[in-house]
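As a representative case, we now present a protein record of this kind.
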Amino acid sequence: MKKSQNMRQVGYSMILVSASLVAVLVVGLLIGEDVLFADNMSRENTAHFNECKANDFKTDGCEIYWDRINNKISGIYVDLENQD
C-alpha cells in the first residue's frame, strides 16, 4: 500500500478543526447565561421596526429602513420627502 504524502496537510486540518471548536466553545461561554440571546435580539429589532413603522419611518434611527420600503415587495409606502 502506498504511503500518504499528505500527513502535513492532515495535521494542519486537524489543528484548524480544533481551533474552530475552541472558537465555538468561547462563543458559547460568552453567551451561555443568555440562552435566548438570538431571540432577544430578534424581538428588539422587531420592536424597533414596529415603532418606526408607527412613526412613518421619520424618527431618528429609522433611516436604516429607508432603502427597504416604498417598493412592491415590502408593501410599505411612505412619503419620506415631506418630513414633519
